Amino acid sequence: MLRVGGASCQAWEASMVVLIIGLVLFLGVHTIAVAGLRDAALQRMGEGPYKGLYSLVSAAGLAAIVVGYGMARSQPIVAWLPPVWARHLSLTLMLPVFPLLLAAYLPGRIQRATKHPMLLATKIWATAHLLANGMVHDLLLFGGFLAWAVAVRVSLKRRAPRAIAMAPPTPANDAIAVVAGLALYLATLWRVHLWLIGVAPM
């Protein structure tokens, strides 16, 4: 059952509009980059203008997400109350996220086994946060990223992925991804999440 947690329904609706606009801009421009439309856009616009517009739209979308999510947190509506076990499960699920993100740029066994480690990291991150958070704006934000990552992964099965710049393949890449990724995970638990988001995960 939805429950109003703030004083102004109008303010909450405004926050949802801003958050949705941010998601559409940010995920939309990233969809263009991975959905086979990038090459056509590059040919029409040229590399410089395309990258400039891509960066501008990405930044605007990210800013709108941050602003809309922050507004919604001050006027929250509860969709469900996560049980304690869900929050513990969320912390456990987050363990491979940073190693997977690093493995996307460090070719090795992890990258070969997962094929698209960054998309997998996004899906795990979104699922973990959906388990631990029950506000409507949480469901919109993390559900949006989860749906996007699933849709992109399905689309990539039908075509070759776009090459991305990455480090040269070496046997040490997997170890670097795991060690550095777990260090980032611990740093996030210790201070970074609180500093960036204002919420202590523990």
Which sequence of strands runs across the widest sheet?
A: 1-2
Q: What's the overall average pLDDT, rounded?
A: 85
Strand content: under 5%
* Overall number of domains: 2
- The span between the termini is 26 Å
Q: Which spans of ≥5 residues are poorly predicted at pLDDT below 50?
A: 1-7
Cα Rg:
18 Å
Protein architecture, described:
This protein is mainly alpha-helical and 202 residues long. It folds into 2 domains: 1-77; 79-202, no CATH class. Helix content is 73%, strand content 2%. It contains 9 helices and 2 strands, in the order E-H-H-H-E-H-H-H-H-H-H. It has helices at 9-34, 38-45, 47-74, 84-93, 97-103, 109-114, 117-132, 136-156, 173-197; strands at 3-4, 77-78. It has a two-stranded antiparallel sheet with strand order 1-2. The longest helix has 28 residues, at 47-74.
Characteristics:
202 residues, mainly alpha, two-stranded antiparallel sheet, 9 helices, 2 strands, 73% helix, disordered N terminus
Short description:
With 202 residues, the protein is mostly helical.
Write the layout of secondary structure elements.
Blueprint: E1 3-4, H1 9-34, H2 38-45, H3 47-74, E2 77-78, H4 84-93, H5 97-103, H6 109-114, H7 117-132, H8 136-156, H9 173-197
Antiparallel strand pairs: 1-2
Helix pairs in contact: 1-3, 1-8, 2-3, 4-7, 5-7, 5-9, 7-8
